[in-house]
Amino acid sequence: MHLFERECSIQRRHQKVIEEAPSSVLTPELRAEMGRCAVEVARACQYAGAGTVEFLLDDQHRFYFLEMNTRLQVEHPVTEMITGLDLVKEQIRVAEGQPLPFRQEDLSINGHALELRVYAEDPQNNFLPDIGRLSTYVRPQGPGVRVDDGFEQGMDIPIYYDPMIAKLVAYGATREEAIARMLRAIAEYQITGIETTLPFGTFVLKHPAFVSGHFDTNFVRDHFSAAVLAPTLPNEGTAQVAAALVAMLLSEKKPVVPVENGKAAGTTESAWRRNRLGVR
Question: What is the rounded CA–CA span in Å between residue 48 and residue 95?
Answer without folding.
Answer: 8
